[in-house]
Amino acid sequence: MIREKLKTGVPGLDEMLDGGLIPGRPYIVSGTSGTGKTTLAMRFLLEGAMNGEKVLYVALDEPPNEVKANLRSFGWDISGVTVFDATLDIMSYDKTPVRDVSSERKPVPMKDIGDHIRKTPDKGPADMTVNTLQEMLKQEMRLRKYTRVVVDSTTSIERFYIRTSEEYSTMQSFFRLMTDLGVTSILTVQLPEVTSPTPESRMARAEIRLHKWFDGKGLNRAITIEKYRGSAHDDRLRQFKITDHGIEIRLETTRKSREPKKAMQAEPESAQHPAIAPPAATQPVPAPIPEEVPLPPPPAQEQVTQPAPPPQGGDGA
Amino acid sequence: MLKGGLIPGRPYLLSGSVGSGKTTLGIQFLQQGVKQGERALFVSIDEPPVEVRENVRSLGWDVGKIRILDVHPSAKAYSKKVSMVEVGAQRSVGSLREATTDGKAEAMKQASPDLSAQTLQMMLRQELSETRYSRVVIDSLTSLRRLTNLEEDPEMSINSLLRFLSEAGVTAIIVADFPDPTRLDIESFVCRGEIRLHKVMASSRIERFITVEKIRGSAHDTMPRPMTISGAGITVASKRKVSPTVLKALQAVPTVYVR
User: What integer best gives the mean pLDDT of chain B?
Assistant: First the structure.
């Protein structure tokens, strides 16, 4: 019953997702600030645009002119991407009435996005809420049949666009809307450096998480598929790099890249430092994974595995 | 470390613990602008301007051309409440050289309303309409957030303030305390980049270093680099590595792996 999967176009990610994303469902990409969420999401749109699909980028955090400028270094042709600038205006604190946004802000092709930030109109700020956003999306879908939509980010929706206390149910209905629209959507989620599961993790059909950490040799970046309903997926942590071509995931499953996984399961004391970690066959190439941060308490399952054979012996085949 | 500097017209976050050199770096950023003939504004919330001046003078810099917006809260005057609309007119900007504790400014401040992100935005709007600043430092956002009055949503107001600076084409450095890793403060994702100053006690002396956490739209150095504060201000040894003791301390800083 599941239709052919939709490719994200991110090198390596489609393999991790067992072919790509199941069409028509909402997904999230989560990670701390600067992990590459926008880059990944934009690559997903680009992939659609290259296949002649209609794709929409909804900017809530970063002004589109900056997004465009930032992506220039990748040399992607993003002219086929339609952009809706939903960023908030400057608030005015005198009594200017706020105006409904739908009449004046329309999605435009990326190529029409200028070099400068959109200015708040002299007549005062437009009223942008999650409701106006949903209205816009519905209208747009009637006009143009988008297949891929990116909403960047849901964190902004929660913080700025929901004016009631019903954040959870409002977000849930937003996810529902994305499903009803029949589009495949990627929503980005900002995470703090130490985090617990977000409501979006529950609502999304899959969560792709981007990590970065420092290990003494430099910055490491990695990607995991935290969940993926209705599909097999890679359960390994994979390192990636952001290069001139965007995100590139290293997929080769050598002994070396499996080593970190082991370190993560091992007891914190033994895995605390790469030097103490079990010696790999050869010198690990880009530094073995962590150095676990002592902060989050060890997961409950770790206690269960503790009586099991010591890390070196147990070769989780 | 920034591969040439900051992309103009965007707001950046400068975080660090107390005494890590944030204000010094901020002033240095403004000083560089002034040297190039730009206009630079320092918004002083944490310290009275006269103290900022004294501190900077001890480094031997001529900071006469940096303008300063004195919003350091004075002793609260409860008697005179001023309406929001009048706030715009009530600001005292002076050059850092002239910063004094003169009675007139004091008197004016007494009548001024409580400072918040809202009132600061209004003051800056007026200030920027008169002078075209290209660099602005706000010191600090942490204080501004605490000062924010009850009726306003601090997150909305801070977002609006940063938007205002972007629309004005200003390159801004927003100074804040070292972030709480369990919280997601809006400035960390609204700002287009973050520079962090660290201070650790390593073998009974303070070691300082600097990291670039993120810069949107630009490659950057991902290694921590040692820095010193001297007569020349902050100097980063961008080619050197931090000492192993520091590295160890840094690894305890939860920049990272969450699962």
Answer: 80
Residues 6+ apart with CB under 8 A from A103: none
As for the ipTM of the complex, it is 0.79
Tell me the average pLDDT across A2-31.
93
Reported as a single tens digit per residue, the pLDDT across B130-151 is 899 999 999 989 888 887 666 6
The residue type found at B37 is G
In this structure, what are the phi and psi dihedrals at residue B78, rounded to the nearest 5 degrees? -85, -20
Query: Quick one: which of B9, B50, B217, B251 has its CA closest to A34?
Result: B217
Instruction: Name residues 220-279 of chain A within 8 A of B (Cβ).
Output: 264
* pLDDT per residue as tens digits for the range B61-115: 777 788 888 777 665 444 444 444 444 445 556 666 665 544 444 444 444 556 7
Helices (H), ranges, chain B: 22-35, 49-57, 103-110, 117-130, 141-147, 154-167, 186-190, 244-252
pLDDT over 80 at B21, yes or no: yes
CB neighbours of A92 closer than 8 A, spacing ≥ 6?
Answer: A120, A124, A125
- Output the CA torsion sign for B174, B179, B185, B191: positive
Q: Residue holding tokens 């400028």?
A: A69
For residues B144 and B164, give the distance between their C-alpha atoms in angstroms, rounded to a whole number: 16
Amino acid at B68: I
Chain B residue whose CA is closest to A188: B189
**Hey, which residues 22-51 in chain B have their CB within 8 Å of chain A?**
none
Burial of B49 (0-12, 13-18, 19+ CB in 10 A): buried
Q: What pLDDT sits at residue B96?
A: 62
- At a CB cut-off of 8 Å and minimum separation 6, what does A169 contact? none
A242-269 in b/e burial notation, b at 16+ Cβ within 10 A?
beeebbbbbbeeeebbebbebbebbeee
B122/A293 Cβ within 8 A:
no
Query: What is the least distance, in Å, from the CA of B11 to any CA of chain A?
Result: 11
Cβ separation A120–B167 shorter than 8 A: yes
